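Two proteins, back to back. First:
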Amino acid sequence: MQSGVLVANSPTLFDRLGAQKPDALLQLIALCNADPRPDKIDVGVGVYKDSAGNTPILRAVKKAEAILLETQETKSYLGSQGDARFVELIKPIAFGEGASGDDRIVGVQTPGGCGALRLGAELIVAADPDARIFVGQPTWPNHGPLIECAGVRMVNHPYYDNQSHAILFDEMMSALGEGRPGDLVLVHGCCHNPTGADLSLDQWRALADIVSRRGLIPFVDLAYQGLGHGLEADAEGTRLVVEAADQALVAHSNDKNFGIYRERTGSLFIKASSKAAAGTVMSNLLGLARTMWSMPPDHGAAVVRIVLDDADLRADWRSELDEMCARIRSLRARLAAYDERLAYIGDQNGMFSMLPLSPEQVLAVREKDGIYMAGSGRFNVVGLSDDNVDRFAAAVVREMDG
């Protein structure tokens, strides 16, 4: 460039960019939307659906929104911590009632579980630029981009075999046995995404033991609490490893268990080694949040706060959440009973499981039957309606028969 004159053929800023690979799930959604078949089945997108195939707004949420509309007096900023009362109310749900007064655990509101994961990763790198985190495979596809983008080095290890439908627990523990003090371990708190295969309580205890013995730091992604076996049961593993660890991170989401997906409502909690250390952690969380989103969105957290602060609304939410959980378990039971090769689905938890189908077989059920799922064979169990479970199972079994 010469004195303000653009030299011919020199690349401008955005000409230097390379095209990015489209997100596979978003592509799948677009393909499904474009399919004109009225009986198509979408088990790719990860949202709860009722027996009619709709994603409802929960009764308690609608009532809380009405209260918010009538009582909210300002749209002023809340600050980088977000809704402090919301965070205070989520803390015992994630950690148990005894954690309410634990001043080693601090938290902030985040834009969904994704925001919590990314903020946690940024905090890790701020504390240790050379940090590494052990991650079981397969895992949620966005875990890698969210965490690695911050600069945390991922160390992959086996977790699940899709052909035998078994957790590779010995291989996992062997890998963690190589961990150094201060290494992190990414753990799905419940309802493992994409496999649905959760650790047993005995396996959680063994994990807590190795975390304690080797000085590892758990980073728990608790995104589906209440949709596996219930609100308390789904947090048991998280509580075991957090209690065993000197330090821990927990990314919590309310998008799923309150059905407020588009409101992006989450929180990040850090357990520090002392009250003083927790104060330092909190100052860093606020500083990092300020540079990322400044203030988190308010609406979802305000709704959750209103529900949890009102005994009647809280009870109604718990009742509807239990109904959602029961529907998922019922669908799993129907699939498991259809064919013995699908029996494993009944023993798994949450919204997702993986089918032992090749990408070619997944494409075949898409083309022949209008069934849309990820190429890995991951499908959303509760994406099925009551009247298409058998048709879905029949198509899957047909492909398994070859």
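And the second protein:
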Amino acid sequence: MKRTEGIAAAGGFSVAARLNRLPVTPFHRRLVLICAIGLFFDIFDLYMSGYIGARLLKTGFFTHGELYLFFSAAFAGMFFGAIAMGYTGDVLGRRAMFVLGLIGYSVLMILAAFSPSAGWLIAARFVAGLGLGAEYIISDTYLGEMLPRRSRARYISLTYAGATIGSPVVAFLATWLVPHQFGAIDGWRVLMVLGGIGAFAGWWMRIAMVESPRWLEAKGRHAEAARILDAIEAEVAKESGRALPAPQEEVAVVVSERVPLGELFAGAYRGRLALMVAFQFLQTFGYFGFLIWAPTILVKEGFALVHALLYVALTMILGPIGALVGAVFVERWERKWAISVLALGIAVFGLAFAFSRSPMLIVINGGLVTLLSNWFSAVFHPYQMEIFPTRLRATAGGFAYAWSRFSVAVSAPLIGFILEGAGVVGVFAVIAAAMVLITIIIGAFGPRTNSLALEVIAE
């Protein structure tokens, strides 16, 4: 490895210096929109499993054991996909993973809709998860590397605000489709086909995206980085209608043609990787523990399926609002402290949901869990991306994020076991404990990141 002062850039300025001085224009917003559309279907898929699972258990298509495997299968696929595609994203580039991951998911989603048995559906969900595994990581990495430093977290959060529209969309579509049949076709199959077709449209939009100049610079491909930067600057200058400000030099960049895995697992970044692995393993208990299991929990509590789906759909309305609130405050409040406080809030209102019995309290407390969860997500996604260097960013992010998928895969049968033995209160007591641990570890060991250049935070 060697350190460079930005030899790819005109006038002796690095890629970071040239990107960070740009005003945000429609060029950046288009990237945000394209990433948000892809993430929309990731969220669509994650929420969909809860609604489909409750229906298939009720009709006898699934046994309880098969339901737990269904919940776990996609996340097990995402575990392996996040590690493999995160590493590949550092080897082959961000754009290649954008294109390959979403098209693979789209095809498998449609095939899964025609599964003749529980076994086929579970297997298809696992394979589809491989394609979807790195969607969050590559999106976070790409946008973080393309956006100016004082705007990156806000626009990454806005990406998730747009994507979280997927939660109420799938909730109300599921309420309309899942309990019914359309001729000889089950409504849950129609829902899966819609998700696969939409993901294909998102893939088509990504073909025109440019590669990250930061990644090209870190690989020593300076001529390509300079060529893409020239085109970006010309487009931004045209869209802004004024001359671009002068660059301010940033920290030198370390160039490495290969991904230095030894540096990640044995060097200075080992502590940060351990921190984010622990964080990712725990955060899914709060985020997915509620969102995936809520319909099944309400059915178990005696509510009719159609009412359970409706109540959960109403809580989902606050999801995009939570992400928008996160986008407003993500640059104002230090991100490590925001993560810590929001984790506590999820614990408190999760327990309140567990003790709720009236529909009004179920919707209010469930809605607050949804709002805080999406605010929490809008903060931690830019945070994780920021604390690793470009040469390792997708690999480190993919490895850490994979443990969130592993956590869901193993927690699904665990939560089912707890639900059977200790009831709803027992489930949310475990969720609350996980969120309190997040408050402790991020508050004590997480680095500060707000408004700092990526190269400063990483190096």
